[in-house]
Amino acid sequence: MKAIGLTRYLPISNPESLVDIELDKPTPTGRDLLVKVEAIAVNPVDTKVRAPKDKVEETPRVLGWDAAGVVEAVGPDVTLFKAGDAVYYAGDITRQGANSEFHLIDERIVGAKPKSLDFTHAAALPLTTITAWEALFDRLKVSAEGKDAGKTMLIVGGAGGVGSIGIQLAKQVAKLHVIATASRPESAKWATELGADRIVNHFDDIPKQLKDAGIGQVDYVLIFNDTDKHFPAAAEVVKPQGAICTIVENARPLAIDLLKAKSAAFHWEFMFTRAMFQTPDMIEQHKLLSEVARLIDAGTIRTTLGKNIGKIDAANLREAHRLLEEGRAIGKLVLTGF
């Protein structure tokens, strides 16, 4: 089968950083599905895993943790899907990724593809949707039934992949008042169209902007960009007994003591946790993807596709990585078909 992989970790400008390869078609066992991949999306995690380092792989490593496709075959213990089902999922960082014609994936972290979306638009959703959903409803404990309606949330990085779906979930599902950060007119327009009530610039003084807007402090903060830079502002603007959640690893120690007087909570969200540790509640990702498909088909929220790069090959995948590394992508970058 066709795939895109690497054996060395190189700058994306190097044509050997991601290459077209041929691999054996795998066979599903246990609770695995064998999925014929129709479309993939690219996320910052792909670029971070691929980032230059001295390690050399003995066999090609395949990246990619966002896919939509059709179930080709199932393992003997599968109960949720059958051959022919259209699915979407984000995958498991401890296994080979989805940048291949066929891909093995545990059924418990797979959802039925939204019926109203084609594979291209569906592939834009899983990783960022799981991340935003878990951050909002599992980590921050915001009510998914709207019981926290009217509370305020600051989303740092509103126009990125996670921010794009996070705004929608916070606004349309949780019924929060959403302030999102964006620094360019086009990204501000995108975040506003997705439901943000107010835009602030993350390159300027965020606490001052909130104060000038008459908001002051917020109940929740989601950091989807540069935790080191934005944590001090988050700690300043979160309300007493409020909560902050970030998805971006820090490079330096964070001054968590800033939260003590407020009794404010700090959470991490990493969407691979359930699959990585085979947690007893792994199936929650299947459930949430199924619920998001329902919300999509009902017109409550929409896909976050920003740009279709073209067919799935090494050249286009390197271009997607390059665009992500520039840090200026709006929405999700997707590739379709081999």
From TrEMBL:
GO MF annotation list: oxidoreductase activity; RNA binding; zinc ion binding
Matching CDD domains: AL_MDR
UniProt keyword terms in alphabetical order: Cytoplasm, Metal-binding, NADP, Oxidoreductase, RNA-binding, Zinc
Cellular component GO terms, alphabetical: cytoplasm
Compartment(s) of residence: Cytoplasm
Coiled-coil intervals: none
Domain Enoyl reductase (ER): 13-335
Pfam families tied to this protein: ADH_N (PF08240), ADH_zinc_N_2 (PF13602)
Oligomer and partners: Homotetramer.
Similarity comment: Belongs to the zinc-containing alcohol dehydrogenase family. Quinone oxidoreductase subfamily.
Protein name as catalogued: Zinc-type alcohol dehydrogenase-like protein
Organism: Caballeronia concitans
